[in-house]
Amino acid sequence: MNVAALVPYHPGFCAGQRFRIELWAKHLEPRGIHVEYYPFASPSLTGILYDEGRKFIKGQQMLRCYLDQLRHVLTASRPDLVYIYREAALVGPAWIETLSKRWQVPIIYDIDEPVFVPYVSPRNGRFNTLKFFGKTHRLFRISDRVLAVNRAIADYAGRFTEKVSVVPMAVDIDRYRPGPGVADASRPKVVWVGTLTNQPNLKLVAEPLAKLQQTRESVLRIIADEPMTLPGVDVEFLKWSYDLEVSQLQACQIGIVPVMPSPWSRWKFFFKLIQYMSLGLPVVATPTGSNLEIIKDGVNGFFADSAVEWHDRLRRLIDDPELRATMGKAARATVEERFSLTSQIDFIERAFRSPGEL
Question: Considering only CA atoms, which of 137, 162, 151 is closest in space to residue 357?
Answer without folding.
Answer: 162
